[in-house]
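Sharing a chain and its predicted structure for anyone who wants a worked example. Both blocks are below, sequence first, tokens second.
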Amino acid sequence: MVSPEITQWVQQASPAVTAAASAYGASVLTRAQDAAADATVGLGQRILQAVWQRRDDAGRAEMERVVDEAADEQDDAYTSAVLSKLLKRALQDDPELRKELVGMLPAPAAVTITASGERSIAAQHIGTAITGDGHTPPRP
């Protein structure tokens, strides 16, 4: 099971990694960073290159294949899902890489959630919330 910290990091990094893979395909892993590239693509490129550089030959070949397939798909949701899985696995397997990559992203903005009033609820993420009288909880 992936830790919540890894999941949160991957969600935060996903737009940059997806943009880099979509822009360059697997060449993002080896190309020099283009000074004209926008900040999002540049960040994604640095993240993917850091992961790629820490892998052995077989891992690099697999990563090149995955990034190329994701880029060829031209579906951001698919690309994001595939690359997120790759990043989660890399972060789980390599605590030193995790430290390096965590330092690449800005700290997430603070979230303030407020609820007031009778029976009010508040949450950043919520599955099912039922308030009031006379409700039966849904069955799984």
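Comments welcome. The first helix runs from residue 4 to 24.
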